[in-house]
Amino acid sequence: MDIMELLKSLLELDLGGYLQSVGTAVWVINLIGVLNLATACMIIVIFLIWLERKVIARMQDRIGPNRVGGKYGLLQSVADATKLLSKELITPAGVDRIPYNVAPVLIVVASLLTWAVIPLAPGVIGVDLNIAVFFVLAISSVSVVTFLLAGWGSNNKYALLGAFRAVAQMVSYEVPMIVSLLVPILLARSMSTVDIVEAQGIPFIVVVPLSALIFFISALAETGRTPFDLLEADSEIVAGFHIEYSGMKFAMFFLAEFLGTLFMSAFFVVIYLSGYRFFGVEELMIGGLHIGALLGFIVFVVKVFLVYFVFIWIRATLPRVRIDQLLNFNWKFLVPLSLVLLLTVAVMDKLFLADAAQIPKAAVLMVTNIVVGWVTVELLRRRDNDGQTAVSPITEEAVTAH
After folding, report:
1. CB 346 within 8 A of CB 184
2. Which helix (H) or strand (E) holds 299?
3. So where are the chain's domains?
4. The pTM is what?
5. Average per-residue pLDDT in the chain?
6. Is the peptide bond before 209 cis (omega within 30 degrees of 0)?
């Protein structure tokens, strides 16, 4: 084994290429890649839990974890994981054992599978599918099935009601998410995540900011994050579909939630923030060493955690909405808005911008998004004012008579 070549492959994030050059079987290389990615995703959740606790504590003027692992509480999440692993797994009488036991495993596996099509750096991706976005949407929809399995298999009416509500939420918000994703797919002319990243000479969040906003709101609902965390509204339905789970089975649902939130942050970076690209640093060569791959990975990680910080910020700030508000906001606002936006961008792109240069095209689309957003807000404001006037008119005569 050539140590220098091994170190070079690590710096260039091309360990698979080095292993192939020394005669390692392709299936072994693929297995190592899968294990590395899955292990990294599982371990980073421990850090994410600590980070979220610390950030929210600071935002709410609290200290947060500070006992286990020094004054920063660095080992608090490790202690929690150890506790959950050692707790007794209690299976209630009367459960349907197959769906009850399959649900927590299936939801974690689905959360890990979506990472297969995320380009972490130039040339560093599990598999470059030409239908990668469709693959993500298909796999993420498995969560709907797992909620039903957990609720139905628990043989508990409250768990079943919680599962129904979770399914209603997730199925509803998949619609604006899919429609909003069609906008960057239309602009990139591809469903491959690699092609979408490479198509972003100007990040799509600048070109189509309204699409990015709709996707982000839908991602909040899909992951069950505040203000859409009705999947665990314990004050209403005793914690929802996972009420009958204990120990590590219970923890696996929240493991999947953190994995899903981190994935949505990474997916948002890929679709709207140009992924690992940052002013050409991803192509940097130094002395024949492609250091740009490592720099691109660092850029990608920084962007992901910036987006994840916004998820935390919203959780620390906003209250939970009611189920009727959640569904009304989706079907009466987000879905029509996303459809209008898609139609507008498609018409502009086809009729007026097909042969336009990149910067003018981006400027026109950005202005179009702003106009659509402004018109929407103005229509809502006028409707709200008209509704208030119709419901409770306050006139001088009425005040005098009173």
Report:
1. no
2. helix 292-317
3. 1-86, 95-384
4. 0.92
5. 88
6. no
